[in-house]
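Hello again, I could really use a second opinion on something today. I've been staring at a protein lately and its backbone has me curious. Please have a think about how the structure follows from the sequence. I owe you a coffee for this, so here goes:
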Amino acid sequence: MIGEKSSDFKDQKDLFKEALASDFSMSEIQQIWRQILTHFLSISPIEQIAMGDHQFSLQESKIIERIVERLQNKEPFQHILGEVEFYGLELKSDGRALIPRPETEELVNWIIEDNKALPLNILDICSGSGCIALSLSQAFQDAQVVGYELSTEAIELSEENALALKLPVEFKYVDVLDNEQFTSALKKQTKLGLLDIVVSNPPYIPYCEKDSMDDVVLKHEPEMALFVPNEEPLLFYRKIAEGILPFLSTCGVLYFECHYLQLENTRNMLLELGFNNVEKRKDLQGKWRMLKAQK
């Protein structure tokens, strides 16, 4: 075991790399190592630069060893750490909601760069951890930002994040697949003004893809936030787009994060529903991942 073989810094780090090499890239291992030293051993990034002669105590070695075991058991490092950075915000991360992904940061960045005329009413549907809603609240501080979510556990997590960040986002229990409930929530929300921005990163992975997915996701992230029926891959996109159309302001905009294999189908569906200027955008991996549609 790591802690038993050596407490020398270089040997410990080499054993750490070896133990995780089959599951992570070298850059990921380096990042995880630095974060362990910072968050669990209270060794600052500056102190880490001059650690060549450092000898880990038995307690420090045991901490590293336990984290390696958890990583080898496919537990997400974000859950071990208990937090994740998303668009400059530190968010609590655990099994109650999906771990925010870099692709979703790209969607948030598109929205922020795209809306120089500051929006007043923003709705995030299927809000999960609250990462999108909270980032937009930070960027558009005069806007009313609301998140709709079906999971009560995810709502608890997002509310904890909002409280910690002191951001005035309201998260509501709304089932967007229930037409009556969805419409009722939208009517209440828009009494004082229609929606300027609606954004959603809903469930979009067909169940047929489940067997090809990593255990890190399947064992530790909520299934209800991931999957849709094989025969209805656009289930959430259609319900959201149809539901919000009457509640968008004259210049209102809808943004979606999509399954890259279903983006064209989603785009065509939006055009059929009467949306205009439906624009698509690739993520940093070169996959068509995001859509923007105007009323």
Q: What stands out?
A: The chain is about 45% helix and 20% strand.
